[in-house]
Amino acid sequence: MDKKTIKDINLAGKTVLVRTDYNVTLEKGSKIADDTRVSQSLPTLNYLLKKNCRLILMSHLGRPEGKKDLRFSLRPVAKDLEKLLGKKVCFVQDYLSADGQKKIRQSKNQINLLENLRFHPEEEKNDPVFSRQLANLAEVYVNDAFGTSHRRHASIVGVPRYLPAVAGLLLGKEVDIISRTLSKPSHPFTAIVGGAKTETKIALLGRLMEKADIILLGGCVAITFLKAKGFDIGRSKYDKKAVGLAKKLLLQAKEKKVKFYLPLDNVLGDLETNFVDGTVPVGQASGKLQILDIGPETEAFYGSIIDKARTIIWNGPMGMIEKKQYRRGTDFIFYAVSQNKKAVSIVGGGDTIAAISKKEYLQGITHLSTGGGAMLEFIEKGTLLGIQVLQKK
After folding, report:
1. In this predicted model, what pLDDT tens digit does every residue of 346-373 receive, in sequence order?
2. Can you tell me the distance from the alpha carbon of 77 to that of 35, in angstroms, rounded to the nearest whole number?
3. What are the residues facing 315 on neighbouring strands?
4. Does the annotation count 37 as an active-site position?
5. 26 CB contacts (<8 Å, ≥6 apart)?
6. Three-state DSSP state, 123
7. 23, 30, 191, 387 — which has fewest CB within 10 A?
8. Which of 218, 295, 350, 386 is catalytic?
């Protein structure tokens, strides 16, 4: 990476404002469902602590729509971080008022976590006053939130206007691994794309076709392509605006000789009634039912392709993972990817990570990216807004 990291500047004894990505999934009772994103920030935090830095950590969580909504409070993250670091973490709610900022500056607490940035509408508006208030808390800014670095938000692109800005170790690692993998991929190169954000991901497929030999689709992305090919999809969710683009991409895949595969069978059900109908061949999702997961024939077919791959990039689950009965396809893909020891595998997306039923599968993944949309945009553009504003080496 051509940007400076925390290893390239003198940070000894300084107060450092660190933009982390603690956008975790919270279960009932404010328990963290999966703290992978928290634990992945530890190398940066421990490095700064060894330099005797005072840390001001900030992050968003969920979409509270610019209002204080305690369902999205970062307080559970502060408690989890204390356990992981083995050090006291001071949770700070008031960090914008003059009195609140004065208390933070005068405090002797070494590790401080600010309450959810998105409780303030100014964060997503990239408000300069809000950016300045955050910058006033520290001497140096560190971006370690790869998963949010594609956002034009105050904590990502606003604060670097007022402070020396460098990358954290996680951000640097993400950029280096993805860049290296894409620049010289081993073949066969298989890309697996699923999830619900069809518009964003379909736009990326054109870029992936320039690199990948094989593309496997699942989730709502696959359903949109099934619709484009004229298959009956019942009442399944798909992106109407993207159907035309899907047709063009299918033609491009033929021209570029990229193997472009859609599910062979699907699991059907009705989300409103929790009715599970079972598995049918592709194109037989008629009536009021919806396609909610890939079927066993697709699992076997995709698995055989994944086994032969030497580079794998995966973003997005295969089905409606919010319901346990529709997680099987995603679990199988994770298992298949983790068992391929000869491949370089990069898996990204918070929803994908949260869907894993068996965490031991993670040990077989080369790199678990903290970014979903950010990873896709980085693959497409080669950089992100939050990376561009950092100091050059």
Report:
1. 998 666 666 665 667 777 889 888 887 8
2. 8
3. 193, 348
4. yes
5. 32, 33, 61, 62, 71, 72, 76
6. helix
7. 30
8. 350
